[in-house]
Amino acid sequence: MIGMTQPESLAELLNGRRSAIDATLPAAGFVIGWLVTGRSIWAGAAIAVACALAVCWWRLRHGDKPRAVLIGLLGVCVAATIALVTGNAEDFFLLQLLSNAASALVWVISIVLRWPLLGVIVGGVLGQKTRWRRDPALLRSYSLASWVWVPQYLIRLAVFVPLYEAGQVVALGAARIVLTWPLIAACLAVSWWVIRRTLPPGHPGLRHPVTDAVAER
């Protein structure tokens, strides 16, 4: 039983370190390939896709769901295609800019609609479907903790947009690496702290939503 006395952190549940690796390796591969081949977008794109394929193989070997793995691969392929079509290396990062802007908006909307994304994600990982929403205390904690995730997207946009407009490909790649794992780690740690601080004493924890059916027993 996972409760507040036996905490299982969000980092453990959501594999935060693995997600950071998935996000940074293809971008690093693109920049390295682009540099060492005399700024060839084709070479950068090829190495980025190769890195994404390697990540897919590694994740599938470790039992990750094929759909989630293929979505990551598709994102890299789309980013590489955009750069190849436009002929601008910095456009490899255009999809990331758009996704960060969209993500910030979606997280805010999810909180306003009382479907906080952190609850949706964790509930999905734990196989709870929508049971967590029937626990008022857990719904409130997920809503408060979801606000922690919004600033990371705004921070990335504040850094990425000027670099993108200036065509700073190497700096974009470096920023992608620097602003991925540290921000994800910070969000996981702070949002977990918020959840633990806002759940009432005696609450059984994320794995055990206190629904009406449970409360009536």
Automatic annotation (TrEMBL):
Q: Which Pfam families match?
A: DUF3159
For this protein, the record's InterPro entries field holds:
UCP010219
So which domain of life are we looking at? Bacteria
Coiled-coil positions: none
Keyword tags = Membrane, Transmembrane, Transmembrane helix
> So where does this one cross the membrane?
42-60, 67-85, 105-126, 147-164, 170-195
- The protein depicted here goes by the name DUF3159 domain-containing protein
